[in-house]
Design a protein that fits this description.
The relative contact order is 0.18. The radius of gyration is 19 Å and the shape is globular. The protein is 31% helix and 24% strand. The protein has two domains: 92 residues, Phosphorylase Kinase, domain 1, CATH 3.30.200.20; 133 residues, 2-Layer Sandwich (D-amino Acid Aminotransferase, Chain A, domain 1). By secondary structure, the chain is α+β, with helices and mostly antiparallel strands. Strand 14 and strand 15 form a beta hairpin. It is built from seven helices and 16 strands. Strands 8, 9, 12, 13, 14, 15 and 16 form a seven-stranded antiparallel β-sheet that branches. Strands 1-2-3-7-6 form a five-stranded antiparallel β-sheet.
């Protein structure tokens, strides 16, 4: 097997020159460590959802997607049955080394910062907000893209200093356009997108949406029918894993613990439920298209 050119917590990347092969595994992480347990269908769900959103947002901005057909992939030494449904052939881009986060609701690290400082990523927001409340307008809150450790929020002014005012404004507008489109669509399917992150690069000198898009790994999805402000919300992601890890007594140092079978299954079910709600189709194990 050809070794991946790079390997993330979830994705294996094979550099093909002017293209990349992105293979999305079933790995899952907690506290920046990869757990030994795999989540069935997770990689295929993330891939299928990215394709779903790429096909619906290409009118807003071009993306790097070329093909998800195994017959189009070069041989990297992996079984075709493994690659099918979890792999994207994409255009190689010159990556903008910042993550473009859009927040529609006050949650997660934004809620923690708001409680302490009354701001979100350094931006002034209305007083008197409560956890999970919707912002009057979605916020663009860029962050660093850390290779190790945690990403760190930066201000729009800091982003402008790093990439230039013109590109920073383009990143902000593209991110907000994508979020607003996706949030409205998801709302019609019974899901709130509380926040999400996008990554961009340049292909042939054009700003391009890259990486994954609007998945449970890159977004905070909440069920609309259970939404209530003033508390944390259930979510369509690895919430069961986080909760179990927090209650397990693990000290967040290697080695990471094995997950119980019921937590693995519940987590897989949540990813699949998000796919089914958003796409309106029933999930089935992906077979290779002709």
């Amino acid at each position: 097997m050809k070794k991946p050119s790079s390997q993330g917590k979830v994705r294996d990347i094979f550099d093909l020159g002017d293209k990349l092969l992105l293979v999305t595994s079933d790995r899952i992480s907690a506290y920046d460590l990869i757990l030994p347990s795999l989540i069935p269908d997770k990689g295929r769900v993330l891939t299928a959802l990215s394709i779903f959103w790429f096909s619906r947002t290409h009118g807003l901005i071009k993306n790097h997607f070329i093909s998800d057909k195994v017959k189009d992939f070069p041989d990297v030494g992996l079984e075709k049955d493994y690659l099918a449904g979890r792999t994207l052939l994409v255009k190689k881009a010159k990556v903008v080394p910042f993550e473009c986060v859009v927040r529609g609701y006050l949650a997660g690290s934004a809620w923690a910062e708001y409680q302490e400082h009354g701001t979100v990523a350094g931006q002034v927001v209305p007083e008197g907000m409560v956890e999970s409340q919707k912002f009057p307008e979605a916020l663009f809150t860029p962050s660093t893209k850390a290779t190790d450790g945690h990403d760190e929020n930066i201000t729009v002014a800091q982003l402008e200093n790093e990439v230039g005012k013109d590109l920073a404004q383009k990143l902000q507008q593209a991110s907000l356009n994508l979020y607003c489109f996706a949030a409205n669509f998801a709302h019609s399917r019974g899901i709130i997108i509380a926040d999400t992150k996008f990554e961009f690069g340049f292909v042939d000198d054009q700003l391009t949406l890259i990486d994954e898009a609007l998945t449970p790994d890159s977004s905070r999805f909440w069920p609309l029918d259970d939404y209530e402000i003033g508390r944390s919300q259930p979510s369509f992601d690895k919430q069961y894993v986080r909760d179990w890890v927090d209650e397990s007594g693990w000290d967040h140092k290697p080695p990471a613990p094995e997950l119980p079978n019921d937590i693995i299954q519940k987590t897989s079910d949540k990813y699949i439920e998000a796919f089914q709600k958003l796409t309106g189709t029933v999930w089935s194990t992906v077979e290779e298209s002709p």
